[in-house]
Amino acid sequence: MSTHTKKAVYRVRNWRQYNQALVRRGSLTVWVDEQALDAWAYQGPAQWGGQYIYSDAAIQCLLTLRAVFHLPLRATQGMARSLFELMGLDLDVPHYSTLSRRAAELAVDLSRKSKGPLHLVLDSTGLKVYGEGEWKVRKHGYSRRRTWRKLHLAIDAETHEIQAVMVTEAKVDDAEMVDHLLKPIDRPVGSTAADGAYDQRKVYRVLEPRTGRILIPPRKNARIWKHGNSAGPPLARDENLRAIRRVGRRAWKEEVGYHIRSLAETGMFRMKTIFGGHLANRRLECQVTEGTIRCRALNIMTHLGMPDSYKVA
């Protein structure tokens, strides 16, 4: 007799609206908005040497177009030029070399719209820069030329919006990036959830002043950091560990609602399904912009519509 449990089945309540949102993702007017067109020309202070011709909004608009439709820089220039001709717009299109150069120093707006206290989930994933494909690795192993970058995300569990993003080298520890992820977030944080890799003192030093509810499961071999005879209130992390020892890890996760951390995995899955698992740029500065542009595009797709699913009994 088979002992395998059946996989949970989910159905979407708002399929009609979600289907229309999926269709709208392919609309050029979503990605080339009037705000960017109105601010196409650079209006900032004069620079040393050659002057900027195009605004950051123009560069951001075209790089977003490139990410959504998986275009090389040259094809992005050609697509924008033909699009403006069809729209009857008298606007010049940046040269692909200008897009590459400006990408290294571009400050990207993540297009965040969520309101109220944030319930953040933290996680990271790898993006390949260059190296063999998975088939070659399975057959013959991998070489030393496989190079990866890490994409660190802070996602709002209620709206699925990406609130902060960092792109680093693969050797950077996840816990080191928590402070950098939270710095650009100027809104109150109701709770923060992450996996056991974030069970480190430096993570709690960053999170405790920002939120009173930290959902990070201590590692299986974890020990109490601050015992009961110590001065001061008990640590939130130690209280979690004591609760796990009392009721068990699974029961603790259900009791505190730790399941929201899985939304980080959902965000990573959406990111790689829509944009792929590779980075096109070779310079780290441009890779940072490329990863942030993808997050901005994913936020816009989230605003268009998300599925409202429920578990079938």
> What is the CATH class name of the largest domain?
Alpha Beta
Total of DSSP H or I helical runs spanning 4+ residues:
13
The major pleated sheet works out as: 5 strands, mixed
Given as residue ranges, the uncertain stretches (5+ residues, pLDDT < 50) are none
- CATH architectural category of the largest domain: 2-Layer Sandwich
Mean pLDDT: 87
CATH fold annotation of the largest domain: Nucleotidyltransferase, domain 5
Shape: globular
- The string of secondary-structure elements, in order, is EHHHHHHEHEEHEHEHHHHE
Helix percent band: 40-55%
* Biggest sheet: strand arrangement: 4-3-2-5-6
> How many beta-strand runs?
7
Alpha-beta content class: alpha/beta
Describe this structure as you would to a colleague.
Helix content is 41%, strand content 14%. It has 313 residues and is α/β, with parallel strands linked by helices. The chain has two domains: 10-107, no CATH class; 118-266, Nucleotidyltransferase, domain 5 (2-Layer Sandwich). The strands form two sheets. A five-stranded mixed β-sheet has the order 4-3-2-5-6. The chain has a two-stranded antiparallel sheet with strand order 1-7. Helix 4 crosses helix 5, helix 4 packs across helix 13 and helix 5 (73-87) packs across helix 6. It is globular, with a radius of gyration of 23 Å. The model has no long low-confidence stretch (mean pLDDT 87).
